[in-house]
Amino acid sequence: MIAVEMANSCRNLLGPHHHIKGELYKVGPDSFKDKPGWTDKDIEQNTPIYTDRYTFVRFGLHDSPCIELK
User: Which superkingdom does the taxonomy of this entry point to (predicted)?
Assistant: First the structure.
């Protein structure tokens, strides 16, 4: 029997889940406020960053695992 164990961060558990940019791979304390912070240098300062939609980071295998015998 072969088992595959995967581990991930707590990003999908803890958020932020409502950022205007969608799936963020770089977050900071300001990512949880409704104004741009140091991780949002490409957004104008007075732009609200909260959106009603939920966003999550993708996690998992993209294809079925393949076992090769050598």
Answer: Bacteria
- Please give the Cα distance from 9 to 27 (Å, whole number): 13
The alpha carbon torsion through 32, 37, 39, 40 (nearest 10 deg) reads 100
Q: Distance between CA atoms of 69 and 44, rounded to whole angstroms? A: 54
User: In the chain, where are the structural domains located?
Assistant: 1-70
CB contact at 8 A, 34 and 43: no
CA distance 35 to 53: 17
Q: What is the pTM of this model?
A: 0.59
